[in-house]
Amino acid sequence: MSEELHTAAFAASRANLVAAGRGRAALVAAGRGDTERVLEILDGGADVNAADADGITLVSSAARRGHTETVRALAARGADVDAADVRGATPVFGAAAHGHMETVRALVECGARVGTANNRGETPLFIAAANGRTACVLALVQEYGLDARAVNVEGFTPVFMAAWGGHTETVRALVHQCGADANTPNIEGLTPVVVAAYSGHTACVRALVRECGADLAIANSAGMTPVYAAVLGGHLETVQALVREFGADVNTPSSAGFTPLDAAATHRGDAAVAWTLVREGGAHLDRALEQRKAFAMALHPRLGRDSRAYALDEHLLQMVLGPHVASRPLSAKAAERGHRKAASVLKFLEEQEDVEPANAEKYAAANAEWRADFECPVCLESGGEALALAPCGHPVCSACWARIRQGDKKCPLCRSEDVVGVGPETFPRSAPLRERFRVQLGDLGAQA
After folding, report:
1. Is residue 390 within 8 Å of residue 345, measured between CB atoms?
2. Between vectors from CA 104 to CA 99 and to CA 110, what angle results, nearest 5°?
3. Which of 34, 58, 258, 392 is deepest in the core (most CB within 10 A)?
4. DSSP structure string for 69-113
5. Structural domains in the chain?
6. 219: buried, middle or exposed (CB in 10 Å: 19+, 13-18, 0-12)?
């Protein structure tokens, strides 16, 4: 290379480095909203459309932080207010994501297109909904006419994205004020209430069902219902709400033949969820036995409905009914997976005579009485919430249960291992531990 070419290449390289340095400085200043400094750097030769490696421009940097005056100043210097980053997001997206509606309006006044979609087919409305920016959502729909029923490339709607994030007020606004549908599924057939349940957003689940018309019976091709999703997510409070408040069906199997109780016992090993499904939701502990009976009746109608058809060939049963039908109880399956607490609780329930779910309404008055007079035998405090440790049956208050759960998970009275705290009213009437509760909590049988 000649000396002249070498000198020219060096000069060009230096110029590029200087320009890049000015661009980075301008990006930082724009992000801080330091309009005076931004203009000073531009006057020094920086590119008004300089961008970082992700395609974030000066306008985008200012817009996402709500620096409206900086946005206006950059637009006045000729900045492209519709420049998209590598994901296809324009400055309006950044402003909408953080709820800066004044900045969105300024961008529109400067010529930005508010309805441009990103690479996933989402308008700024989707991003505002996903981040729970309710005021911004309403403005984008009511002032700029963005479609609240639109779907992205995966079939997500703005309601779906708001529900996934647990943004209850945004969900309400989209349905009641923007005309969105609460039951539109994505391409996998999952509805907003299913993703809210899977994520453990109990308040959002309540709003979707009570106020927005979400259908708990809708399942995708894999059989994913809201209660199944809540179980898979390990969210006890959401499972309890679906069962207690909405009477969700806990016995509907997935396409693979597994019920929410199967998932709680063998997949999650969640003893408290398993207890709720059985004692409050009426989940079938011995589903294999029920399927055997139905199969036996189909083959031999004269056997009678109470026939225990154990004589049927195991291989034939599994071929016809699926591999989930087996002689072993659910507690044994949970134990095989190493879920000791779930196995212990399920074994206790399997040994009881009555398997019908508890009637929570029937015992509501009794509960109020018990809790008013309850004295915890561990801390000797009165008036706390009465809970029972299953399967040993000793009563404790909620504060003591919290310490047990975070500690060695043993009953402080009998040292039983892997206990779980549940409401005493949910115990089967045949359980011996009822005798222990009669001492302090009254006779449940008398309240029936």
Report:
1. yes
2. 165
3. 58
4. HHHHHHHHTT--TT---TTS--HHHHHHHTT-HHHHHHHHHTT--
5. 364-447 (3.30.40.10)
6. buried
> Residue 397, by phi and psi: left (phi above 0), alpha (psi -120 to 50) or beta?
beta
Taking the model in full, what pTM does it have?
A: 0.79
DSSP result, 195-255:
HHHHTT-HHHHHHHHHTT---TT---TT---HHHHHHHHT-HHHHHHHHHTT---S----T
- CB distance 89 to 113 below 8 Å: no
Minimal CA–CA distance to 63: which of 78, 79, 77, 45? 79
β partners of residue 388: 395, 422
Q: In residues, how long is the chain?
A: 448
* Phi/psi of residue 401, nearest 5 degrees: -65, -40
Please classify residue 162 by burial: count the beta carbons closer than 10 Å to its beta carbon, then call 0-12 exposed, 13-18 middle and 19+ buried.
buried
Stretches where the chain sits below pLDDT 70 are 1-23, 286-328, 353-373, 383-384, 429-448
Give the tens place of pLDDT for each residue, 342-353. Answer: 888 888 887 776
In the DSSP assignment, the letter for residue 2 is -
Cα angle 375-377-379, degrees, rounded to a multiple of 5 = 85
Helix, strand or coil for residue 386? strand
* Residue 215, CA distances (Å) to 210, 225, 254, 382 in order: 10, 10, 17, 42
CA neighbor of 47 nearest in space, from 89, 95, 71, 80: 80
Query: Could you give the CA distance from residue 333 to residue 352 in angstroms, rounded to a whole number?
Result: 18
Q: What is the pLDDT of residues 264-276, one digit of tens each?
A: 988 888 888 998 9
**What six digits make up the tokens of 234?**
């390990």
- What 8-state DSSP symbol labels residue 395? E
Q: Which of 70, 68, 23, 25 is nearest to 48 (CA)?
A: 23
